[in-house]
Write a structure and sequence with these properties.
homodimer, Rossmann fold, 3 domains, elongated, alpha/beta, seven-stranded mixed sheet
Chain lengths: ~650, ~650
Amino acid sequence: MSFAREIDAKAIELSKHVLRMTTASGSGHPSSALSILHIVTTLMRRVMRFDPKDPWNAAADRLVLSEGHAVPAVYAAYADLGGVVGRDRASARSLSFDDLKTLRELNSPLDGHPNPAEGFPFFDAATGSLGQGLSVAAGLAIAARLSRTDRRVFTIIGDGESREGQIWEAADFIVDHRLTSVTAIFNCNGQGQAAGVSRQQSSEALAAKMSAFGWTVRTIDGHDADQIVAALAPADKPIAVIARTVKGWGVDLLHDQSNHGKPLTEKQLAAGEAELDAMAVKLGVRPGKSDLPLPAQPAPAAPPQQRSLKTVPFANAMNDAGLAPAVEKNACGTRRAYGAALLALGKADDRIIALDGDVSNSTFAEYFAKAIPQRFFEGKIAEQNIVSVAAGAAAAGYIPFVSSFAKFLARAYDQIEMAQISRANIKIVGSHAGVSLAADGPSQMSLHDIAYFRSASHADNGRGAPVCATFHPSDAVAAYHCTWLMAAHPGMCFLRTHRPDTPILYKADTEFRIGGSHVLATGDALTIVSSGYMVHVCKEVVENLAKSGINATLVDAYSFPLDCAPILKAAAATKNRILVVEDNYIGGLADAVAIAAAESGGFRVYGMTCKRIPKSAKTPAEVLAYVGLSPRDIEFEAKRLIG
Amino acid sequence: MSFAREIDAKAIELSKHVLRMTTASGSGHPSSALSILHIVTTLMRRVMRFDPKDPWNAAADRLVLSEGHAVPAVYAAYADLGGVVGRDRASARSLSFDDLKTLRELNSPLDGHPNPAEGFPFFDAATGSLGQGLSVAAGLAIAARLSRTDRRVFTIIGDGESREGQIWEAADFIVDHRLTSVTAIFNCNGQGQAAGVSRQQSSEALAAKMSAFGWTVRTIDGHDADQIVAALAPADKPIAVIARTVKGWGVDLLHDQSNHGKPLTEKQLAAGEAELDAMAVKLGVRPGKSDLPLPAQPAPAAPPQQRSLKTVPFANAMNDAGLAPAVEKNACGTRRAYGAALLALGKADDRIIALDGDVSNSTFAEYFAKAIPQRFFEGKIAEQNIVSVAAGAAAAGYIPFVSSFAKFLARAYDQIEMAQISRANIKIVGSHAGVSLAADGPSQMSLHDIAYFRSASHADNGRGAPVCATFHPSDAVAAYHCTWLMAAHPGMCFLRTHRPDTPILYKADTEFRIGGSHVLATGDALTIVSSGYMVHVCKEVVENLAKSGINATLVDAYSFPLDCAPILKAAAATKNRILVVEDNYIGGLADAVAIAAAESGGFRVYGMTCKRIPKSAKTPAEVLAYVGLSPRDIEFEAKRLIG
């Protein structure tokens, strides 16, 4: 048989497995899977260089299935190759056709959508929330460039999915950074979930758009293996393959629009398979017999190696970043110290890369960008993309720091959640958080972020780490050391920094830890707990209270998941009274302390948070007063708590 | 003078005000403002039909300044017209040139970025987080079509800003819905914040892209008023004007890249003004003298009128939606009841519109879509856009319901926050939340959403309402009535629904309220508090506990900001013991109860939340066991709490 007929035969054979596994699971998207089986089979049997027995090989070509719900197609093709599944090399085993029927089961590596963390290492990132795969592919391509491997990265994107703006952010990014190793394959089957795909996502429209975005565009019949192979030949520019396909190819039973995400019933299954047999007869092929070769092997390669992470002393790093005068003046914001730490880290460890969204001169990623431009990737004003790019680069062993204003990162929360599911080792840095930003106003202030990130910090990622460890340092020393902690910690972290330049509170060699806190003052009347910028405000309050003979303990609780035991212990020495002060909406520190206090019982906790939508004002002090967080407000509540 | 020279003169005059006001405020973005002053002046003096004395006129043309940081340009042009500012008609007054120097002050209507809620009603939505204005414009255009007014909607978008994917989502949406009343003006000054704008956002690239997206494209010199007027002439397709401009036009002092977001110093101000004077001489114009006419007046029009919102009885509405059999079988999910309520609301009130992201057959917005297609707007797979479109439509008096999977809405959280700042009366509905989704796996499960939305529910929007009221109903009756509550409540709301079909717990005419809860069982051993799907699991637990002689109180706490007093009162009758159970990450119900308990003191509260990243499994029960929330787990903790 010709190669194209071989692929037809293989696609038909695997289509039957797709029907069976989705029927067995009672859920899944067989019609989407059937539309990409020629593409998947051609990629995995002819085009991609990889070893199904070693999916961890860092030189192998990669496939990112952006259209995650079509995953049964890849599961079937991978089982056909006896590909290795397992969470690590120790538990590795070959996937068999029999395993396919465990699709979506609790103990199966075949999750409902691509999920490498559950034991399918052929993939690099969890997908299924749409529009993120092209960015992940870009991240893998960045890593390949840094690691000097010639791996290619293919991604399959649904036509309907290409409506997601992130696809276009990624398309720009890939051209900006000349990531020609990325190939985007648009699966144009014309059907969405609720209705047909818009004409704005027709194969013609997508071809015109990708061309306007600067890509080489090749439109093909996505069920013709010869055309697929030709379209995937490398070019000088990144390639967009516009593949016209049929949803539910070969199975009329699946063609109807209403069949999105519906498997055949047990009763329909035989008829579905018979349809595929008839298609085989029509095409003159015999499924089950295959002369297709195994994929070509890549040269083995190793991911970037871990170096020692010996912390550079604070003073040296600040000096190196040009911040010695700021330290001298005792006015140095947490965002600046983050920049200094990132620079020091970048010099100490080649795995560290940085991404930013056109605000590196505000987040202070610019110190790194200027000193180590080859590992800095400017994402421009497109936050969703840089988060998913980071997840891709992390999958290849890099440690990406992604920075923007904390407020703007909120548009990438779904991407952050997908990175959490991927267990991506990425570090997210949100600057200008809270109301202390003042003049720029609420459109730039992040107020929900603490609740959001704390939420993830209290769940386990299955590898003994929080889903996302969170840091909210109050001064430059704390921000500096927390950044180092983040780099050393294997798992997602979030760092929240502020705009104002603030005094330094800690000795340069103070130790910090995930979930840690420090006592900054000790009293007997009440314990005030705060973090970030508000620690400075609370310090003022403590000093004021002392003038009226009230001695308060002040705790800087700079990290989630917060270890509350030391705080409750401190509060036990202040008549069990705790006042918590935050510059964000509810859901953060006050909650963490209250949960711990209410679990143990016997404490009185009062939380102060941002109680109204802020607005512009000239100074942080004015906004603090506006939202009920002035020193006077805090003093009032402290005295009320004392009673 | 010719019209173009008149505009030159006006732009120069207003540029001086921009310099002065930003210098006075000590912050702001004069260079961006100067790049759009010809466009703004031409729009506001020649093209737009509006009455500066009545910015609330529902027939007037609108300007959405997507590039929010350039707002001093609009403030200056509006002051020049004596435009009316104020939070409502009662407090309305004319803006003067003197007022401009209050830019960014606490008591000024001139917030750092466009912020209609602080008293600048010329705008419809807060902007400043970039990439959202074109969607807002689309929402205004939808409203105009429904209200049968011929208002045009202009939006100014920065070139760097057009990197945001949402711009391209909006571009598709506007073509899909033939919203030819929208005109997008791209301000191509070539400079971003940290560096120059990418070639991917050059005027040529943007022209090619917008053309590929199906728009009429007109490239002009953005400082030539004649060209601006010509480019803004209506066309059959929506128009994209690609305006080549100069950042800091007329003021060399501002041209340098590093000047983004930096006003002139007091010392530089005179030199800046002198540069503008020199420009006037060069162009042969005399700033300060103007023969420009006032804008053309639109016909007065009224926004859509409020009708009575008499609740349709549950049974009637369910029957109308075809759900009588589901009710009969006692298996009807909250998402279905939402669909029935939306349909009933749509029939009862013309202000109700619905938007969905290609999942209306999952969220059950489809009942509305089929019955009232003229008020249903399919947004396809692009969640950011539909949220901002809703904000735009709400500004024109409509009540939009926006639905998708709760998980996918996380990519629109920044858009939701901007809508909060706008005080947009929009209703957000997230389906398939929590771990009960099971088979589809974590990429489709929303776990952070409760923490996120609760966070906003506890702050005040300045109009006596929560920033976002949140509902998490446990059964069809509750979901039905909560949807009606949302429609009647003037302010943002979030509704969280689940996939599974569950039994009905409430009588059809039960009353619900914001912050409310209901006691479903009364005991003496402990109080179990839950919401949504977990209420059913807890009900099973309560029944099991009863078998071993332990009588628990069960509270369904379905709304935030939660009124905790009744819960603490109930708990007082159960020895002050409270167990809270949630199917999401921490930050929600347990926190709310713990905060209240710890404030009052004397209670013991233990919270159970989703403790690890879930995965696929065949049934909700399997996933619940996997994440530590099975009935057995809950029973164990209940007994432990009793001691």
